[in-house]
Design a protein that fits this description.
The protein is 41% helix and 21% strand. It has 457 residues and is α/β, with parallel strands linked by helices. It has a 9-stranded mixed beta sheet, with helices on both faces. Strands 14-15-16 form a 3-stranded antiparallel beta sheet, covered by helices on one side. Strand 4, helix 4 (123-135) and strand 5 form a beta-alpha-beta unit. Helix 1 packs across helix 9 (266-282) and helix 8 (222-235) packs parallel to helix 9 (266-282).
Length: 457
């Protein structure tokens, strides 16, 4: 009976919904955006924010030496490392353009290097980048510097340089240890490389090591995911992000190389997740928010316990700053009341900066309604519960309550007059629960249903 219920839920809720690193989500943003207005808003927000709170910086380093065919990130495949200096010069100039908007040096609370493969860059070039940023800023006394690394090319010299620059967190893309799965996704990565990179980081003093794992990849089985998870747990990373594979070959061309018959069914995919979660929780990891697990000693766990966990384009963070500045191709900035994304190709990004223009092209200005429903989504994804505001009662009743009642009927949430709490059974479906508060999605669904009924009549 239990397996039947899980199978039914897996099939029912195997739906394409956003990860809600933002709300409104990127697909509803517009390219017809007033960038001058956005710059004015950013400048205004910078003047209003408490300097002691600091700001966050996300820097996108897009280069990879080989294509991982599962990957949906913005990346540029090359083995030509001469591209490093030119790209860093563009980021440096972009940062200067932002500094020209601000009335004082920014205080950096969080800094994250993502990609691509940030460790594609040499240790000396990473040092160049970070020193350029920090010499023109003030580093918060309670700062957090983090980087994504590839176990195959993250050297001791990388880690030593990063540690000296103030980095204490590193995330390694592991994905899966099974040789057949690695072959299909074109990410051959011996376990000893993961072990070496982890041991080196800890030896130098990094206090948080994260592994990214993916379930739902081609050829994954319960047996292979069990082996991978046991091998990973033995290395005792402080955090594990256990992501659902999103098969979107129409946007990620590398995924077209997969034989879709090798992908697990919705039921099998849910079983992969449940097996991974079972092994992680048995090993002492706590399920924190959407896709993430952490050991009790990790800062992410502490933030979750204290109710201060936050979610943005860097994923889950332990600090909530009112401004997130995105540097580099395709990066996204968040002022709390607006979003703006950089151009997606290196050519277009470079062209804008070389003309002394911020390389933005797409964004969104949040309405009061957007801000309110963004808070519901953040509460659910970070805390597992939310309370309803009286001022939103009519909108909630019209758009959110109907799908929430269905989720409650399936045992995924417990609802009351003033809010809801996610049940243990609902943990794998947090994105679905969040989607009930996505008014753009819910309005679209209601409109489609109305059109369908009209046609039927």
């Amino acid at each position: 009976m239990q397996l039947h219920i899980k199978k039914t839920l897996a099939e029912k809720y195997n739906l394409p919904v956003p990860r809600y690193t933002s709300y409104p989500t990127v697909p509803v943003w517009t390219e017809d955006i007033d960038t001058d207005h956005w710059k004015q808003l950013l400048k205004q927000q910078f003047e209003l924010h408490n300097p002691k709170d600091g700001i966050s910086l996300y820097i996108h380093l897009p280069f990879c030496e080989s294509l991982c065919t599962y990957c949906g990130c913005n990346k540029k495949i090359t083995t030509n490392h001469s591209v490093e200096e030119g790209y860093l010069a563009l980021i440096e100039r972009e940062f200067e353009l932002y500094l020209e908007l601000f009335h004082q040096k920014p205080m950096i609370r969080e800094l994250h290097l993502g990609g691509g493969t940030p460790t594609f860059f040499s240790p000396s070039n990473l040092e160049r980048l970070i020193r350029f940023i920090t010499e023109r800023s003030i580093v918060h006394s309670d700062y957090a510097f983090s980087i994504e690394g590839h176990p195959n090319n993250t050297t001791y010299a990388h880690l030593e340089t990063l540690y000296q620059l103030g980095f204490r967190r590193i995330s390694y893309g592991v994905q899966d240890n099974d040789p057949e799965v690695q072959r299909i996704i074109n990410r051959i990565q011996p376990l000893e490389n993961v072990q070496r990179a982890t041991v080196d980081a800890r030896k130098l003093g990094f206090n948080s090591v994260n592994y990214d794992l993916i379930y739902g990849l081609p050829k994954q089985t319960l047996e292979s995911i069990t082996t991978t998870m046991k091998e990973v747990i033995a290395l005792r990373p402080d955090r594990i992000a256990f992501y659902s594979y999103a098969h979107v070959p129409w946007t990620s061309k590398g995924q077209r190389l997969f034989d879709e018959n090798n992908l697990p069914t919705a039921e099998e995919k849910l079983q992969l997740y449940l097996k991974g979660k079972e092994l992680l929780t048995a090993a002492g990891y706590t399920d924190i928010g959407m896709d993430h697990f952490a050991l009790p000693g990790d800062e992410l766990y502490a933030a979750w316990k204290e109710g201060t966990l936050h979610r943005n384009f860097m994923g889950y963070t332990t600090h909530h700053t009112s401004i997130l500045l995105g540097l580099g191709v395709s990066s996204i900035s968040d002022t709390g009341i607006s979003f703006m994304q950089n151009k997606k190709t290196i050519h277009d990004y470079a062209s804008a900066i070389q003309n002394n223009k911020l390389p933005v092209f797409k964004g969104c200005f949040l309405s009061d309604e957007d801000k309110a429903f963004r808070r519901y989504i953040l509460n659910i994804s970070c805390k597992g519960y939310t309370t309803f505001r009286k001022e939103d009662k009519q909108l909630l009743k019209q758009f959110s309550v109907p799908p929430l009642r269905l989720l409650e009927k399936d045992g995924l949430i417990n609802m009351h007059d003033d809010g809801l709490i996610v049940t243990p059974a609902g943990r794998p479906f947090i994105r679905i629960i969040c989607s009930a508060f996505d008014l753009y999605l819910q309005r679209s669904k209601q409109q489609s249903e109305q059109q369908m009924y009209s046609k039927a009549i």
